[in-house]
Amino acid sequence: MSKPEIPPPVLLVLGVLHTDEAAAEAALAAFVERFGPVERMLGPLPFDCTDYYDAEMGTPITRRFLLFRDPVSADCLPEVKLFTNAIEERFASDGKRRVNQDPGLLTPVNLVLATGKPRHQRIYLGQGIYGDLTLVYHTGAYQPLPWTYRDWGSEEVRAFLTRARPRMTRALQGTPQDKEM
Questions:
Q1: Above 80 in pLDDT, residue 29?
Q2: Which of 15, 79, 134, 145 is 20 to 30 Å from 156 by CA-CA measure?
């Protein structure tokens, strides 16, 4: 029989799409005020993986990936996603988003993104939010899965997250999650 245990803290990541730099900076400031400072950032990068957001957000769309310094509880993803939804609504114009924030939790063994959309690989977490297993740590790096979004599965993003892993594992040393699976 397994014995339930509270998992160790994890690191918060945020993917940000935007077409309005001022709105993106203001939205990020609201996120930082609530969840603490950014430790590392990748970008800005052009977002050319899909045209899914073009009609709503316009073009060109820019992408950033942020890793936050302060560990968070491993069960906070629904709360964080609801907060980012509120931020997106606050900075929308005429009902269209100018900023899209995709929060996730990075552990030594995986990356789980939050979403409100059910799919076969997503686990319901509560409050209308699902966890999407996006990357797994294997053979020395975070690896994409068949359903991983192209930008999150890119070599550049996976290298960015893999470079953060040693600090994370030192911070979580002694926990069951610090070993590769």
A1: yes
A2: 79
105 contact partners, CB below 8 Å, separation of at least 6: 10, 11, 12, 13, 72, 74, 76, 77, 111, 112
Phi, psi of 130 (to 5 degrees): -115, 150
Query: What are the domain boundaries of the chain?
Result: 11-173
Give me the CATH code for the 11-173 domain, please: 3.30.70.260
pLDDT category, 171, cuts 50, 70, 90?
low
């900075």: which residue's tokens?
91
**Is the omega angle on the peptide bond into residue 78 within 30 degrees of 0, that is, cis?**
no
pTM of the shown model: 0.89
For 159, the token pair is: 């290298």
